[in-house]
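Fig. S4 source data, part A: sequence.
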Amino acid sequence: MEIGGLFTALLFGAIIGGLGRLVIPGRQHVSWLATILVGIVAALLGTAAATVLGVANTPGIDWIELALQVGLAGAGVTLLANRSRAKLPR
C-alpha cells in the first residue's frame, strides 16, 4: 500500500466512523482513534457487502454502499460504547 492509499483509508475511515457516530443517539464514550478504526473496517466490510449484493458499481454516488458502510460503523461504535460502558464504575 502506498502512502496515498494510507491517507485515503484514514480519511474515509474518519468520515465513515464520524457518520456512524452521528446516527447513534446519545453520547458515546469511544475515542476518535477507535472511531476511525471502526470506520475503516466498516468501509471495507460495507464495500464487500455491496459487491456481494451487486450494488457496488452504480452510476453516480453509491448510496446503498454508503448506507451499508455507515450502518456498519454505527453498529461498531455502539458495540464499543456498550463494551466500555460495562467497564465504567457505577
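Fig. S4 source data, part B ends here. The two ends are 44 Å apart (CA to CA).
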